[in-house]
Amino acid sequence: MSDLHVRAKALDAEDELALKRREFVLDDTVYLDGNSLGALPAHVPDRVADVITRQWGRLRIRSWDESGWWTAPERVGDRIAPLVGAAPGQIVVGDSTSVNVFKALVAAVRLARGDGGGGEADAGRDEIIVDATTFPTDGYIAQSAARLTGCRLTPLTPAEVPAALSPRTAAVLLNHADYRTGRLHDLPGLTAAVHAAGALAVWDLCHTAGALPVGLDEHGVDLAVGCTYKYLNGGPGSPAYIYVREELQDRFDSPLPGWNSHAEPFGMRPEFEAAEGALRGRVGTPDILSMLALEAALDVWDGVSVDAVRAKSLALTDFFLRCVEAYVPQGLVESLTPAAHAERGSQVALRCEGAGDVMKRLIERGVVGDFRAPDVLRFGFTPLYVSFVDAERAARVLAEILEP
Amino acid sequence: MSDLHVRAKALDAEDELALKRREFVLDDTVYLDGNSLGALPAHVPDRVADVITRQWGRLRIRSWDESGWWTAPERVGDRIAPLVGAAPGQIVVGDSTSVNVFKALVAAVRLARGDGGGGEADAGRDEIIVDATTFPTDGYIAQSAARLTGCRLTPLTPAEVPAALSPRTAAVLLNHADYRTGRLHDLPGLTAAVHAAGALAVWDLCHTAGALPVGLDEHGVDLAVGCTYKYLNGGPGSPAYIYVREELQDRFDSPLPGWNSHAEPFGMRPEFEAAEGALRGRVGTPDILSMLALEAALDVWDGVSVDAVRAKSLALTDFFLRCVEAYVPQGLVESLTPAAHAERGSQVALRCEGAGDVMKRLIERGVVGDFRAPDVLRFGFTPLYVSFVDAERAARVLAEILEP
C-alpha cells in the first residue's frame, strides 16, 4: 500500500463530511463527473414516486394548491439561496440555464438604460461584454440578447474586462468558474469594476453553486443564473434558477413575461402587470416532476456548511494534484487548473495527449471524469460524496494508463 | 334509473375507446379537468422509477448516450407528431409553452422579413397579430416579441383576422381552441388567409392536441406550439413542444440559440452555427425526468386513432349538453360552447351565476372541472378516459347543486 493511499485513508477518517456519502447512490466507481451530472441522493426515488403516484395520480389538479406545486419555483429558490449567499425572496427556479441567461441579459440591458418601456435603440449604453472563455451557450445567448436589444457584443477574457468597461457598457456576463480549466474568477473584484462603470454584472454559477461560497448578496451581484444538476444533484436537466437582486426587482423587465410572472396569474387579464419580487423571473407553467425531484435532492444540504464544503474541495483537489505529480511521469499531463486556491473551483483539468482515448480507458477502469475537446481531461470533485481514497485511486489509474 | 343514465350505459358499451380507461389511474371521481391536467397513465410511475434509479442512479452520466437522453427532445417530438398531423422531424420537445411561443413568434417575424441577420428595424413587415381571446400568456409573450423585433401588436378575435391582414403583417398567433369557451377556430381557413397576405401562421395547440385532428402538414401551418400536460397526459408542467415546418427549418432563426441547437453541441465552439432541422428549436439541456415521464405517457396512444378520439369527444360533449338541458332548469346555465361540431373543441363551458362557488360544490361532490373568472364552469372531456356515465353524472350533480 502506497504512502499516498495511507494518507488518503487518514484524510477520509478526519473528514467531517464523510458520512454524507451514505446519502447518495454510489458504487465502486470513482465518480468524478459530478460537475456534469451529480449523483443520485438515495431518498429521491421515493419522493418522486409520491409526487407521481399520490400528488399527480390521486390528487390530480388539486395538487397545484394542496401539494404546493404552484409556489414551488420560489420555495425551491429559497432552498438554493443560502448555498449561494442570498437572502430569501431573490431566486426562482425554472427553465434552462440558457433561457435564464437570456432573461438576465435582456433585463440587465434594460436596467442599465433605465428603460421602462420601448425605445431601446436610442439609449446610450449599447454594449454587452461576455466572457470569451465561457461555456458556449452563454455566448450564443448573449449574441441573441445583443441583437434583440441593439447592442454590440464584446467577447473578452475576464482579466480583460476591467480595462474594457466604458460608459457604453450595459451588462457583463461572466462565469464564476471556467468550465474547461476550472479557474475561479474574482467575483467580488469584477462585480465592483462593472458597477464602477455603471453597468450590471450577471454571473453564471453553474460550476460553483454547491461547491464553494458565492456571496451574491455580500458582493452586490445584480443578476445570476445557474443550473442545478451539477453540484446541487438535482438530476439530469433539472430546472435552472435566476437570482434577481432585491433592489432591482421592481425594475426587472423580463423579455419572457409569461403568465406565471403576472401579478394575478389567474385573473387571466389581457394586459400584463408584473408580479412583485423575484416572481418576475418565472415564465410558464413550472415543470413539477423535475422541480420536486430537485427539491428532494436539496435535503442533502441540511446541516452542511458551504465553508466546510469549500475546505474539503480544496483539500481534495490539492491531494489529487499531489497524487498525479507523484504517480504520473513528468511531462505526460499538464494541469490547467490554477494552483492558487483563490483561483481554483472544484475541478481539476489536465491537458493530455489523446485525452479522448485516455478518458475512455479511465471510464473502463472505473474512474469517471469527462473529456472536453481537444485535449482536456476533466475531474470534478464533489465534496459531499467524493473521498480522498477516490482521488488517490483516480490518479493511480491515470498513471497506469499513461505508462502501462 | 333515468333514461339518460340508461342511455349513458349503452353508449359506454358501444365505445371502442372504453378499454383505454383502464390504462389510467382513476377513482370514483368524475374527472373533467383533463383539459388542465391529464390523469396519470398507470405505467408511468414504474418507468420514471427506472429513469431515476437505474439511468440516473447507476449509469449516471453514461445515460446521456446509453439511455437516449440526448436525443429525447426529437424522439419524443416524433411521438407527438402523428397526433397533430405532422411527419417526423418537425417537432422537438422542451421548455414551456410560453418560451416556445417566444421562439416561434420571433422566428416567424424574421422569416416573414426574409431576415437572415440584424437590421430588423428597416424591414417592411412590422405587425404581429395576436388572438385577443387567447390564453393570456400568449398575448404577454407576443407583446414582448413585438417589442424586441420592432413590431406593433394588434389583438383581434380570430374572426376579425382575415380582414385585418395587410402587407405589413409579419406573423399571426392563434389558438386552435379558445381556452375559456372551448370554441374551435378554423385552422385551415385562417392559415390560408394568413399565407395569402404573405405572413406566417403560428398556432397554439394546447387545447386541441390529443383531442382532435390538427393536420399541421396538411394545412400548411408554419409554426406551432403546445403543452403536453392536458390531453397528452404528460404530467404537471411537462415540457412543451415546437413544430417547425420542414420547408422553413433552414431559415428558422431562433432567438434562443442555446448549445443544444448548435450543429456540433460538443464542439464547444465560440461561434454559433445552427443545427439542421427541427433541432434548431432546442435550447438548453433537456429536462430528462419530465421528458421521459411524458415519453412513457405517450404509450397510451399506441393503436389509437385520432379520428376515433374526435368522434368520441363530440359524442361526449353532445351527450353532456343534452343531459344538462334535460336536468338543469332553463336559465340557470348558458353554454358558451358552440353547438356546431366544426366549432367545438373537447370542452364545454357553461356560464353560471356564482360559478366559483358552484365549482367548489361540484368538486366536493366528486365532479372535478374548473372555474375561470368571472363566471365560467369548464368541463373537459378526455376521450381516452371519460365515460358517458361520467358525463351523465356530472350533469345530474350540477342540476342538484343549482336547484337543491
Question: How would you sum up this structure, described in words?
Answer:
2 copies of one chain form a homodimer. The first copy, chain A, is an alpha/beta fold and 404 residues long. The first copy, chain A, has 2 domains: 3-17 and 304-402, Aspartate Aminotransferase, domain 1 (Alpha-Beta Complex), CATH 3.90.1150; 48-301, Aspartate Aminotransferase, domain 2 (3-Layer(aba) Sandwich), CATH 3.40.640.10. Chain A contains 12 helices and 13 strands. In chain A, helix 2 (44-59) packs antiparallel against helix 9 and helix 4 (72-80) packs parallel to helix 9. Chain A is globular and about 70 Å long. At the A-B interface, helix 2, helix 5, helix 6 and helix 9 of A face helix 2, helix 5, helix 6 and helix 9 of B.
- Look up the CATH topology of the largest domain in chain A: Aspartate Aminotransferase, domain 2
Straight-line N-to-C gap of chain A = 19 Å
Give the number of helices of chain A: 12
CATH superfamily of the largest domain in chain A: Type I PLP-dependent aspartate aminotransferase-like (Major domain)
Q: Fraction of residues of chain A in helices?
A: 25-40%
